[in-house]
Amino acid sequence: MSLYKNIDNWLDVRLGTHSLIEKELTGYLLPRNINAWYSLGSVLLFIFSLQIVTGILLLIYYVPDADKAFASVTMIMNRVPFGWLVRMCHVVGSNMMVLILLFHMLSVLFMGSYKSPRELNWLSGFILFNLVMAISLTGYLLPWSQLSYWATTVATNSVGAIPFIGSYLVEFLRGGKLVGPPTLGRFFALHVAVIPITIAAFVGIHLVLLQRIGVSTPPFGLKETKSNWRGDTFRYEEHPGGIPFFPNYLLQDMTSIMLYLALFFAVLFFDPYLFLPKDAFIPADPFLTPAHIKPEWYFLPNYQTLKLFPSEFLGLAVQGAAMTFLALLPFIDRGTEKHPLKRPLFMACSIGGILLWIGLAIWGHFS
Predict the structure, then answer these.
(1) So where does this one cross the membrane (predicted)?
(2) DSSP designation for 223
(3) Coil, helix or strand at residue 271
(4) CB of 342 closer than 8 Å to CB of 222
């Protein structure tokens, strides 16, 4: 008997590894009509892992001090071996993570995978989306450049429009009246510790819910596209006759990750500064306001919405109402039909919302 078989047998008799592998991998059956969109969750896990690795490497040289932060980032880019590569992987990866997360949420919406009994899956995913936006915002300030300083000033200013508590919230976020060294310390702690740990916790919750309730069947290629869950008893959605996760769908996951890496490296090597305007290479100067400071592309719709309304409070209220509606969508949309083409009102609202979001982003970019 080979050494491998000896080790395999030793582990199996103690841990039951064979039955565990059969249950979680080869015996874990997925719908036969499952498609590539389902692999975006695995792509997001891969991106999050890569962000943690590159973030830890950046921490070796980054100094979270207002007098030294920009110089330390400059040193990483110019003097640390492969420092530029690590930093640009982190910068490009953060933007790609938001993009892939948006696609993942859209696929869940259009395939009706948010519907009962998956309300908690949707809510945990929605919270993850907001946490990813928060970690992106807090990471924006860390280079302590003109872009990061003034973008953070604009972002924290908008919170001040909330009645009664707005001014206190602004001071709490900044650690003072203005963006300064205390703000950098707070955002650094949030970016490297609080938010990543919270994201990891919610990823765990999201996966446990998925494992507990089962994978949703896509509505495409089926005659019956309505959910048959009646809501009276717990039911794990099984897929008898489906395809095993290992090796079949794992191959699809790996294919999607390779396609993502192709796009990621294309941006990294052919247009690495795509997400860094020229103000990102100038040290922060609190006494010199740039002429056209803009937030990251995924905050442009929020930025433009605030400009459209006569008061920032009204703009915030509209965005808050839209986000609340999105969070509570599984409790509002109680229909059992999952196929998007059989939900005309949903299709009209969804496509209209997407076009509005894109339009506001373009408008915000050129305004």
Answers:
(1) 36-63, 84-110, 122-142, 149-170, 190-210, 257-276, 313-332, 344-366
(2) S
(3) coil
(4) no
